[in-house]
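User: Just a sanity check before I run the rest of the batch. Below are the structure tokens for the first item. I only need the designed sequence back.
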């Protein structure tokens, strides 16, 4: 490669997606993140749990690890893109990250990208119902013709954390010592041994009908202890995402409710373009189960005269669900949209990060 190409070539933007459990980091234009890190490094988990204790200092340590221990680049005069949930990311977190990056690390610019919208760029479509099932919650936002329909958003605390609590409580009842059930062990048990069962078996289990249970498995811990994972727990741990009660707040219900809040002429196209993202949506069996649940709901007496749709269909993104959003941010950041970033010069004049609902970037965006 000629010397001038390495010296004068523009530095690629750094793309980050900071989730409640994991952070995805890498460079724009790449097909997958360089690293996927647990967010609990150096108490950074407290930042994402919205505590104000040492927020700035924790963010400084967090980004220091990202830049110098993992990506091995200098952040000075580097462009940064954040992929974030429009609904679930508190303003205090966004403003703290901007303050740290502009004042402490002197980055050139920051671009905030809406997770649900940029995920569609991985499929080259502009209309879909995007369902993000993460660690803390499930957030549903319809996107129609490239615009998020924010009035129709739905969110419930139905994510990986709920499943972890169910697994931990069940194992403790079965006599497993609580001290060996760390968060890492519980997550490994969930990923390696559990799955989402079929709708018919879930209904039979709910009605206390006799079922042939799937096999128990032994899970070794640190080479000394062995945890027996019951077949019922393996098969039905994820039923916490599909509660049946009078509140109708399970995962299929919030998807249907998001569709109902959209204009009638948009509902059919949204229902036939559902995209699942987020780490919890990687679990085996969740997509077929959701498809069956939604098809049952749209034919039920409660919804059939309100929805005006006949079927639901799901997309298969070209990336793993846990970093589909990051890939969308990588694609966006490699285009001219990066010029709409908030620059350091403009931020120092107007040190305020605009909110998504009242966004007016005239005073903070790059000019030109």
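Assistant: Here's the designed sequence for the first item:
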């Amino acid at each position: 490669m000629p010397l001038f190409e390495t010296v004068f070539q523009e530095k690629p933007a750094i793309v980050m997606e900071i989730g409640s459990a994991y952070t995805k980091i890498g460079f724009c234009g790449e097909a997958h993140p360089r690293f996927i890190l647990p967010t609990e490094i150096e108490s950074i988990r407290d930042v994402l749990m919205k505590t104000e204790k040492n927020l700035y200092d924790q963010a400084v340590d967090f980004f220091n690890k990202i830049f110098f221990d993992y990506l091995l680049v200098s952040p000075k005069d580097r462009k940064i893109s954040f992929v974030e949930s429009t609904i679930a990311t508190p303003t205090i977190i966004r403003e703290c990250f901007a303050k740290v990056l502009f004042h402490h690390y002197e980055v050139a610019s920051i671009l905030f990208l809406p997770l649900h919208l940029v995920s569609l760029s991985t499929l080259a479509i502009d209309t879909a119902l995007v369902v993000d099932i993460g660690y803390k919650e499930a957030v549903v936002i319809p996107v129609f013709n490239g615009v998020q329909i924010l009035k129709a958003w739905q969110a419930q605390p139905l994510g990986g954390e709920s499943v972890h609590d169910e697994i931990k409580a069940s194992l403790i009842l079965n006599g497993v010592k609580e001290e060996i059930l760390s968060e890492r062990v519980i997550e490994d048990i969930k990923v390696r041994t559990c799955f989402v069962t079929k709708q018919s078996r879930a209904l039979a289990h709910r009605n206390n009908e006799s079922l042939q249970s799937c096999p128990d498995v032994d899970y070794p811990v640190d080479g000394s202890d062995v945890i027996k994972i019951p077949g019922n727990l393996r098969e039905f741990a994820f039923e916490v995402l599909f509660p049946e009660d009078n509140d109708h707040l399970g995962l299929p219900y919030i998807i249907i409710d998001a569709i109902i809040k959209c204009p009638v002429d948009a509902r059919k196209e949204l229902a036939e373009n559902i995209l699942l993202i987020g780490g919890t949506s990687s679990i085996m069996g969740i997509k077929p189960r959701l498809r069956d649940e939604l098809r049952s709901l749209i034919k039920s007496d409660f919804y059939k005269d309100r929805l005006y749709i006949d079927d639901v269909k799901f997309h298969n993104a070209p990336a793993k669900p846990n970093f589909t959003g990051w890939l969308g941010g990588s694609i966006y950041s490699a285009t001219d949209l990066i010029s709409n970033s908030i620059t350091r010069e403009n931020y120092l004049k107007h040190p305020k990060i605009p909110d998504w609902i009242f966004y007016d970037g005239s005073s903070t965006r790059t000019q030109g």
